Amino acid sequence: MFLRRKIPALFIRARAPKSGFAYGSGRAASTACSQQKEKKRQKNFINLIPSENFTSQAVLDALGSVMQNKYSEGYPGARYYGGNEFIDQAESLCQARALQTFGLKDSEWGVNVQPHSGSPANLYTFSALLNVHDRIMGLDLPHGGHLSHGYQTPIKKISAISKYFETLPYRLDVSTGLIDYEKLEELATLYRPKIIIAGTSAYSRLIDYERMKSISEKVGAYLLADMAHISGLVAAKVIPSPFQSADIVTTTTHKSLRGPRGAMIFFRKGVRRINPKTKEKEMWDLEEPINFSVFPGHQGGPHNHTITALAVALMQAQSPEFKAYQETVLQNAKAFAKRLGDPKGKGGLGYNIVSGGTDNHLVLLDLKPQGVDGAKVERVLELVGVASNKNTVPGDKSALKPGGLRMGTPAMTTRGFQPDDFKRVADIVNRAVTITQHVDKASREAAEANKRKNPGGVPAFLEYLGGGENEREILQLRSEVENWVGTFSLPWESNKAYHVQYCESSIALNFAKVAGTTCVMANNLSPENTACPVDSETRSVWLQSRECKKSAQFNGSINDAKISSPNKADESCPINQTSNLMSTAAPRMSLWESLTSWPAPPAERQRALNKNSSNEQEIQKASNRTTLLSPTSLSSLGQHREISTIPRTQQLSTLTDQKNLKETERLPANCEMESGISSEGNWVYPSEKMFFDAMRRKGFTTEAADMKTIVPIHNAVNEQAWKEIKEWEKPWESEK
């Protein structure tokens, strides 16, 4: 039985004030309009930015949940506001899953999940462990490091980290494109930093954490691993983990991990070492300083909706599907780099790949041999429908005019790209570089003719290029890209992409307390018991039925349908599955179960449905019989009924003809006889009284007061299930 819950619109379109901002033609634009345009852009763009990804609908649902309404300064069990019982549950669950995801023991590691993003997480860690002007060493930005590791130029401190602390960068060996560990050790021995950072933002090779740990111990420094880019790969165990060597690990949560935009700080706890002289245990002292640095040191209230969404993402990251996704991320990156970097005579395009290849999710292209810079190519790629980002490479002098282009595979792997698809992407990038070379030459000539300063600069190029509307090659390539990438689903559109969507976010976290349970229930969810409710056998039967000739097509009114066999049912036929999350009273039924296999029927009904019985009146009598109720019970039960969004599969008038049909032609189980039907042909959900009567009739122990809780949950779960089933089947529309 399906039922309906009224759900408010996700977005409320507000009328813009007369004095509001004007966009484009001067017409006011609403946020809903902007969101729809961004959704369309994401659909029709090839996203190669390695720090971006597409998160699941379950994560988006949690981000847009009521969890964002609550202030909760402090930590679980020690808040500065009241009413945080369930906020505490969500944050504690998130912490537990963070440790589980990376295979850590809570006796050896702790984690703070409150940082709003990655750069602040690094600042909070530095502030917790260092005094002002203490020393840090991190990979130089032009060599693949990150701004938050303390980047500065000879004349300016770019990152505020370099203002608060003294920073010295280590670099790559330019001849190999790999981290120069020998030089790092030499510098660290002289500089004596208190923290050495093992982390990158544009380095395509694996980090030797053991070597860096050895160097850190030699100079008495903490080893901080910033795994923001690679945390998803680490979680899936497809690349080495930093946790065996690092003292502190920071990470963002929205890149390869595919969670919401947030961050985590992991820190060691427990016994650090045994004092060789006193034989006493020396304990790690990281937890209290780091937690205090986050709150109250730098932040106020945490973003509870983000923490809840992160808990969902961390559960997804523990699934076999997530591991398969990360393996494909690596395969795609290698295929992409090989096509770009191999010599032209050996099936490649002859580009210079920094370090000569990749071991992770990204590819760093050095464009200096092509005579163009990353900023210009980035703009042309954007105009043809490819999102990438300019990036510094070894030898660059300006971060505003970098010679490299950074590209990654996580986002498009989420949408279903395979190695052959990334070979095609490499060809698109190559065409964009060629277009850039032609436009750059023309823009230089035009700028020189106009006696413009710096005719080869990025501003002159961008001014000449405009929106690319005058470049035929750009328009043609943009059309090709849109027509191709638009055929790949976004994660919330399809399970065909690498997308793991659990009903935890939409059902368990929203309805657990309503049902009288606790969020501990979410701890027990696993990929095995949160799989898509449509079993493979059911779907196989359904797809086979699509090959048969339809006897009717649902056109809005159920009374117009004349279906002679359930095996030829329309695609609007609902699939009635029993949710293993909300009930274990009945086994899950296949789509075309006959009337003779309803779950656990009472003895009287079972006799009526016996194969030897053909007494339809007896069947109807058994269906309509109810348990006698007291006047008090009846008076407390509502009789209002709601109309669902789910269509029925069959006319009511045909239900009485079951005895004349062969067993293979009988109606599906969800065409049971007790429910009503709307004028639009949709199910009508039972009232509280009807629901109570049915449960008593079928042998369940329940009270009238329970209906106030059970009926709304029942309705909401069925509406959500129907919505997700329709989304789940979209990729197979062509098979129908």
From TrEMBL:
Pathway(s) it belongs to: One-carbon metabolism; tetrahydrofolate interconversion
Residue numbers spanned by region Disordered: 394-413, 601-631
Gene Ontology CC: mitochondrial inner membrane
Cellular compartments annotated: Mitochondrion inner membrane
CDD domains: SHMT (cd00378)
Domain of life: Eukaryota
Polar residues biased stretches: 609-625
Pfam families cross-referenced by the UniProt entry: Cyto_heme_lyase, SHMT
E.C. designation(s): 2.1.2.1
Transmembrane intervals: none
Co-factor requirement: pyridoxal 5'-phosphate
Record field: catalytic activity: (6R)-5,10-methylene-5,6,7,8-tetrahydrofolate + glycine + H2O = (6S)-5,6,7,8-tetrahydrofolate + L-serine
Xref: SUPFAM superfamilies: PLP-dependent transferases
One example of a Gene Ontology biological process annotation: tetrahydrofolate interconversion
Domain Serine hydroxymethyltransferase-like residues, every copy: 36-429
Keywords of the record: Heme, Iron, Lyase, Membrane, Metal-binding, Methyltransferase, Mitochondrion, Mitochondrion inner membrane, One-carbon metabolism, Pyridoxal phosphate, Transferase, Transit peptide
Coiled-coil regions listed: none
Molecular function terms from GO: glycine hydroxymethyltransferase activity; holocytochrome-c synthase activity; metal ion binding; methyltransferase activity; pyridoxal phosphate binding
Keyword Ubl conjugation: no
Function of the molecule: Interconversion of serine and glycine.
Entry similarity comment: Belongs to the SHMT family.
Name by which UniProt lists this protein: Serine hydroxymethyltransferase
